[in-house]
Amino acid sequence: MSEAALKALEAQVQAEIAYLDLTAASWVRPRSVNGQDVHDVVVVGAGLSGLGIGYGLLREQVRNIVLIDRAAPGHEGPWLSYARMPTLRTAKQLIGPDLGTPSVSFPAWYAARHGQAAWDALALSSTVDFVDYLRWFRRVTGVPVRNGVSLLDVQPHQDVLALAIDNNGQRETWYTRKLVLATGLDSSGPLLPAMVTNHIPPALRAHSSDAIDFTALRGKRVAVLGAGASAFDNAAVALEHGAAEVHLFARRESIEQPAIRTPLENAGLYRHYPDLDDDQRWRIMRRLARHSTPPPPYSVERCTRHAAFRLSTGCRWEAVRELDGVIHIDSTLGPVQADFLILATGFSIDVTRRLELAGLVHDIARWEDVYDAPPDDRPDLVAALAQSPYLGASFEYTAKPGHDAPWLHDIHDFGIAGLLSMGRISQGIPGMKFGPARLVQGLTRSLFLADADWHEANLIAADTAALAGAPDPGSVI
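User: That's the sequence. What structure does it adopt?
Assistant: Structure tokens below.
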């Protein structure tokens, strides 16, 4: 590690921050409720997306903000918890939370810390390095984060939002004008098949996003349900911890999938997908729903190098039961026994499952409330897609037809639930070039327009003071 190179980079960062005027006073009207200052924006989640959004707001001189995260400092996001892969799955040079500021980018940090030759030789960043970078980014940019803080409930209060907050075990009430939910994949919780949850006790199963004690799986037979990257990564960790057998089951016939997303991976569609009409957005996402993202080759090889790994494709579980501590699986390829189940079955996009929004969900519009889906041969996929919240142009919730809930426009959902409405611009690193910028512009636009009369009144007061006791100089136009 080159301390001198890193210090030089940090000096450059501070010079660029001064150039960008990030330290300028906020232009947003100060507010208070019940004698308490009102935040302009509260961002829930201080991982990759949250940091990018926070930095974007600072660049727009919106400084009365705070990011909250229930995790300990440096452990925000999935990287050190359920993201059980040794490296990132995305190209090393993609724009991250820096939003295009070179000095605070991952390439700049990596080259300063490890040397230019190491950067040139790097294929994919390790998750450990990326977490170290995010910690550094947070420190040098000054994005304000409060750790050990959770959002419990949201309610409209006058013309702001009242937040019930767990602040390191202390319940508090905060007020904010805007709320951003940047909680990633697990916003509404995992998707768990009922046949498993109804018949297998929690001690014998886990979702891939759970905190799994892999050391306890040594010598055990593990069954993994799923065929995506997380399924293979969890299977690999179980094998690396000495599981006697890991058997991965996939409904699809082949792990390899067509490059269906390739036509969508361009700047035009990333940036302007939300501007498409409802019919076209539905058709695009319905077509994508036919296919799932395959695991990268190195995740597969991480499993297949072990003799204890088994893979069954084209296989469905028809029934699951537990008998004397043993799990019995009736599959389309025959009976299987296991000692523990790992369910890599994805995450819910159903906003009604968000506990912090329990008092508001009856007003939040979902696609099924505003869009009549065309006839389809897969009603299960249609039903799942239709649960997506119907978001506005800046990720804001909208009200169901006939419901009067203007406060919903002050709550922005920057996560997986917005996929149908917004496309992939809130989906990890590939969307960072587009999603936070769109959200930040929507936030600042809304804040400015709401304060337009106040800004004009300030101009009138300044004009009046300037002309006090002096003749009117006339027009300067």
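The radius of gyration is 25 Å.
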